[in-house]
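Crash report, auto-generated. Payload:
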Amino acid sequence: MAEDENRAIPEETNKEAPKCQTLHESMELLTKHIEQALKELDLNSVSEMLDEILGAKSIFVMGTGRSGLVGKAFATRLMHLGLRVYVVGESTTPALRSGDVVVAISGSGETLSIVDLGRVVKKIRASLIVVTSQPDSTLGRMADKTVRIFGRAKNGKGDYLVQHLLGKYAKLSELAPLGTTFEITTLVFLDAAIAELMVRMGKDSKALEDMHDKLQ
Amino acid sequence: MAEDENRAIPEETNKEAPKCQTLHESMELLTKHIEQALKELDLNSVSEMLDEILGAKSIFVMGTGRSGLVGKAFATRLMHLGLRVYVVGESTTPALRSGDVVVAISGSGETLSIVDLGRVVKKIRASLIVVTSQPDSTLGRMADKTVRIFGRAKNGKGDYLVQHLLGKYAKLSELAPLGTTFEITTLVFLDAAIAELMVRMGKDSKALEDMHDKLQ
Amino acid sequence: MAEDENRAIPEETNKEAPKCQTLHESMELLTKHIEQALKELDLNSVSEMLDEILGAKSIFVMGTGRSGLVGKAFATRLMHLGLRVYVVGESTTPALRSGDVVVAISGSGETLSIVDLGRVVKKIRASLIVVTSQPDSTLGRMADKTVRIFGRAKNGKGDYLVQHLLGKYAKLSELAPLGTTFEITTLVFLDAAIAELMVRMGKDSKALEDMHDKLQ
Amino acid sequence: MAEDENRAIPEETNKEAPKCQTLHESMELLTKHIEQALKELDLNSVSEMLDEILGAKSIFVMGTGRSGLVGKAFATRLMHLGLRVYVVGESTTPALRSGDVVVAISGSGETLSIVDLGRVVKKIRASLIVVTSQPDSTLGRMADKTVRIFGRAKNGKGDYLVQHLLGKYAKLSELAPLGTTFEITTLVFLDAAIAELMVRMGKDSKALEDMHDKLQ
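Recovered output after restart:
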């Protein structure tokens, strides 16, 4: 680690206390976490998720808080791919129907409103894919498919892998508070899934650019 | 890389064509990019940004599209820290005043509406911090402070570092289309900045949890 | 009605079939509905609602779909008044606490996610005010205070007053489909409540203008 | 008016100062304003707006603040009608193209970001419809079509009609501060336009209900 720090901190500030040391440690932890969590991804479940998305009439994405923001970022790219995609709660999101696929993002798998909407999804007989750190959660158990992201959920469950990998950090929850590792890893995973979908759909970067919102 | 792949792909699927190969390559590229871009961060400019945030009466965050989502994720954590923070465009965002700090997120630094609002910020004599891949852009040049994120902006500028580091990928823009590397790196950077702010403010993870929205 | 039509439709088009006749009828119905529903308002319950809002530490507004949009429009004005107000689901909304007041807007009083969040509100021992056409609904029954708006909820309940008043319109639900009358009447009521709060707080229009978001 | 007040205020409170008198006056003003402003609508321009909407490949709605919320409420209903509609700034809004129609809502017609986006709309050669109180504004002048709503814009322009009609209210801006009359009247007008579109498209209330978002 000493070596890394030498690289990151400019020499002229090296004699005093290093600037932004916690920022530096947090970035190291987050990067390692992403790297490890992505290696642990079950590619079979990922591949099935992508098949479902490609076979869906419409795709609906849902999540609350920062997980909801990650979901919106994914939905934006699915739209760039030319897929019919909606974010639950936005103004022009239509009725969900059988044949549609819902991607729910919840680290703990216990987010109240998402669990409730999950029940509605099942009742409508749409397909429910859950991206979560807790496949055994209420939401995980009602899913048609789950993709497990090794991240610490807000409630602290799921820490064991993180602790094991990154044991040297005594202050894990201070370097990546609440659901941070889950949210970041999920964003990276979903963006990589977009790259995979581009290949499967024969789309290039230019095709996505053409779909990009011009009113910004 | 062969070694990595062996770890990531379960043995029973190893004999056929590897599953989700593009996903795998994209995750590798994104992880390396985050790692490298964070090492390239100018910690002096980061430290000044954090000083401004801590000294602000109110903090306003703005961005469009996926950069706007990253901004919202940052704003959520600033609120968890107990800071007075608003997202430009949300329903209860009040008038900006002198003494406030605006954090604008734009990979290209040329996003039309953000550039225009940047002008209003300067007129009101609030402080403008720009997180961008292009400090020489219109937005970068009007900023009081810039933090440079080495990411490819949507318009393809800024590729050189990425190309240099990750040269083996012929299809860079297919593995991380449009502003993906900027958006992801910025999210990780801003989350690490939250960890740094926690230390500076003497807050622990429990304090953030107490502020977390309960109506989800 | 013939008289009204003569006034509204310019003479030169009067000889042909009148332009936008349904628009015209719908506007007449909506205007009459607003007028009548506002007369039916129970001012005691309104006054108690305003007392609660003025006594709250923070005010939280929640609703889904178009009721949620009406709630956001109300929240914007409460912010203009200088009150501490948040919209449930926005990025910087903090934890609800005892001593806070939640204003829930739901025509039917049965909106799944709002009913669920209502239970959380009660558990936290914050005050729950429900603006609804159905005070006997699940949400209405759990409220600390309700304000009844005579509007047709999406499920068609509550029609009786509307039918009685506006009986001549055979096609009521075609002139104001789904929750339209509830949503419009609630917006007008809440905007009038803002005028009342201005007087009680000694604020004038200029004070509100000063708080108005400048980054638009 | 005395008669109205007797009806609205319960007898037991009648002896003291009337409850919520400003609320009552504001509701009366708002109702009269809606009624009058709708009578003043130019049905030819409305009819042309509806023709454009029905002929559009896709419809985009834009506005900021409370005008933006009114736009979202309109967009929700256009979606219920089965039209292809997007709200500018939402996550899954695609690129605007020639052949599309943009409905911009701005009381003053001078809202900075909407004016800027209006220029982009013209450059893309999409059709720009502006709903405004100020057809002579920057936005109004660049529009392909305008629909004039007699409401007071935030900047106070356009008051003359309101003052003329409702002259007895000395405190007009206190009973309906900022853009209130514009926003409310526009919502009622656009909801009446939905009723007109239902007839033109042969849709009934049931068809709209079927499209209504079930995940709430």
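Post-recovery validation: The first strand of chain A starts at residue 59 and ends at 62.
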